[in-house]
Design goal:
294 residues, 78% helix, globular, mainly alpha
């Protein structure tokens, strides 16, 4: 009998692997520029994906070529934009802040689905969106409303929020992915993501930013490529395909749980009171939205 892992277990494992990715992005910010880390992460992932995907690519090639525009869009949102923006954000904000802001993803999925895709929301769900947004503002303002009025915001938080929106759109659009094997799909979006990321990476190099090459940086890039990119995306895409984007999005709030624990242990970061308040508001909003597929 063929073993078939639970989609819920896969969603949990994806978040464990991605939590480590956020910690590495923050820890290596001085040694690996953000666009370099994003580019080589996906280059390594693609090197592992292609041999595994080869038999599926042969069968799925007609569908992949006819759906190349969708693959390009998924590559832009899921492999290029999301990772690059998150790594840029981690140059300026803590891993704890980035992880907690990322917990807004489930509500961002619901809000964007309502605003642009005609998803119907009840009053209590709209209230949940508003409360979660208040939680995001609490974290961004560091618990001080004057930060918002004086526009003294951390630019890193803004980059992270932009990455959250990119990932929410990616997840919402996953039901429109080509009907191909998950490895064929991952190979396709990795290829397009690298093409779309290459000009920005070239600009980073031209601006004089270079990464330090040693065993630590190589190990960090290898982790982001093999575990966070390859296995994380395979697990996430399979989980979303089986349970739907709304339910899968709720599992994303496990990311700060795992990530903050790793940040405390490896980066010596300590959560503040406003972190607890902000994440409590975000999770309240998630609870009000219920998590039922729409």
């Amino acid at each position: 009998m063929r073993f078939r892992p639970s989609p819920y277990v896969l969603l949990v494992l994806a978040n464990v692997l991605w939590a480590g990715n956020w910690v590495i992005g923050r820890a290596m910010r001085g040694d690996i520029p953000p666009l370099a880390l994003s580019f080589w992460r996906w280059m390594i992932a693609l090197m592992f994906i292609l041999p595994l995907a080869r038999p599926h690519l042969r069968r799925d090639w007609p569908m992949l070529t006819s759906s190349w525009r969708w693959l390009a869009l998924f590559g832009l949102l899921g492999t290029a934009t999301y990772n690059a923006l998150a790594y840029v954000g981690l140059q300026y904000t803590t891993a704890t802040n980035g992880l907690l802001l990322n917990s807004f993803v489930p509500v961002a999925i619901v809000a964007l689905g309502w605003a642009f895709m005609g998803k119907r929301l009840r009053s209590v769900e709209l209230l949940g969106v508003a409360i979660s947004l208040l939680g995001v503002l609490t974290i961004v303002a560091r618990g001080d409303p004057r930060t918002l009025t004086l526009l003294e915001l951390n630019i890193g938080d803004a980059w992270v929020i932009a990455s959250v929106l990119a990932w929410a759109i990616y997840t919402l659009l996953l039901p429109h992915r080509p009907n191909v094997h998950p490895l064929s799909f991952l190979a396709g979006i990795s290829f397009f993501g690298l093409l779309e990321l290459a000009p920005a990476y070239g600009w980073e190099i031209a601006s004089g930013r270079r990464m330090t090459l040693d065993w630590t940086t190589l190990a960090a890039i290898a982790y982001t490529g093999v575990f966070a990119a390859l296995l994380g995306f395979v697990f996430w895409n399979r989980g979303v395909a089986e349970v739907g984007p709304a339910k899968a999005g709720l599992y994303y709030h496990l990311l700060p749980v795992f990530g903050i624990a790793l940040s405390i242990f490896f980066l010596a970061e300590q959560p503040e009171v406003y972190h607890a308040l902000g994440v409590a508001l975000i999770f309240t909003g998630i609870g009000l939205n219920g998590g039922k597929p729409r």
